[in-house]
Amino acid sequence: MRVTRQLLSFFGLSLQFSQIFGAPTPVEDSTSQSLEPRGVKYASVDQRLFKVDGKKTSYFAGANTWWLGHLFDNADVDTALDQICATGYKVLRVWGFGTTNDASKSQDVYYQVLNTSGQYFNYNTRNGIARLDYAVAAAEQRGIKLILPFLNNFDDLGGINTYTNVYGGDHNSFYTNAAAQAAFKKYIKFIVSRYKASPAVFSWELCNEPRCRGCSPDVVHNWAAATSAYIKSLDKKHPVCVGDEGWLQPSTQVPNNDGSYAYSNYEGVDSERLLSIPTIDFGTFHMYPNQWGYNYTWGNTWIEQHNIIGKRAGKPMVLEEYAVPQGEDRKGIMGKWQDTIVTKTRYLLPLLLLTSLYINTAKISIAGDMIWQFGTHFPSGNNPFDEYALYYDTTANSDYDVLARQHAKTMAAKKPVATL
């Protein structure tokens, strides 16, 4: 369904039409509260699972569509969402950030400008926040939920360095830089205030893959605790997650922790400790064995390990990104990962690990999984996809049919057991 400007206004999206066609507007004049409709059911946590629609507890399958709010053409947004609905996906992950330090050179959609003259939000209908408005409203019309990260660890489309370029320091000092954090909180308030009334929001996410290489895990932990508490002060109804990759520590008590890269604190993140933060409602982890120096079968171990730490914390775990490049046996590799998530399995533990921590049968209750990334052929010809994209395909037994459509159906049908 196409979404008009009148519909955007109807859904409570705080568009200021007197500002839309002008230059980016200073922060102080830009944030207004959206009106919350009565009787709306928001996504919520139910022990180790979710009520995705705010009513029924279930597992879910979803996809990363980071580009949805960065598309210039409404028809492209509609095409993607219609195909996602046909697939059976319930949750998408869409970049809620878009920052530039120099608007005059930006060829992309951007929502915020940070430079030495100040902090500004972009209300231009062609390349500003109106693009994300359209994506949120179009998702809401179709009953699709969105995870919205506020920041990127990397430089693409509004990373940490867009803040340090203005407020000083380097990537790692961002987490403790008072001026950078003040600006970041203004941006968080802008996004949360704009969309918190929308049932399309599944959760707020602090950052896509936060890292602090060479840091104590205290740095990211303390930042996540403070930032998530701030988000909760603005909106207590939507869940909050970190968006981390699930890095573990040498001391993390899980089977097959060999102290290698994913368990070494190389990236300065302790995923299990992040789960202990009261204002973090669920855990995330990502999985790219081929990039991280592991074989593909290790992916099953990574899934099982995160089920363990989620169970210890009593919180849901979402496999938020996973992929295999085009040209590989994706049905064979990713299919086995999906089987681990869907089925109940037992660990085959080395004798030395048969302690009270691990002796029980390990049943998998990963609340949801999300491929990186959904791909399609847009009417505009735009192509924001990489070599990991899984393209929409209605052909029986195609990679997409098996790994997307059939898997979404299987996850939706899986009996919810919220305490596993």
What would you say this structure looks like, in words?
With 420 residues, this protein is an alpha/beta fold. Helices cover 32% and strands 14% of the residues. Strands 12-11-10-6-5-15-14-13 form an eight-stranded parallel beta sheet. A hairpin with a 5-residue loop joins strand 3 and strand 4. The longest helix is centred in the middle third of the chain and has 18 residues. The chain is globular, with a radius of gyration of 21 Å. The protein starts with a helix and ends in a 7-residue tail after the last helix.
Q: Termini distance? A: 39 Å
Shape: globular
Total strands: 17
Helix share, percent: 25-40%
- Uncertain segments of ≥5 residues (pLDDT<50)? 1-23, 28-33, 345-362
User: In what order do the strands lie side by side in the largest sheet?
Assistant: 12-11-10-6-5-15-14-13
Measured by DSSP, the beta-strand proportion falls in: 5-15%
Order of helices and strands: HHEEEEEHEEEEHEHHEHEHEHHEHEEEH
Average predicted confidence as pLDDT? 89
Which structural class do you get from the secondary structure elements?
Answer: alpha/beta
The Rg value, from CA coordinates, equals: 21 Å
Largest sheet report: 8 strands, parallel
SS summary, helix count = 12
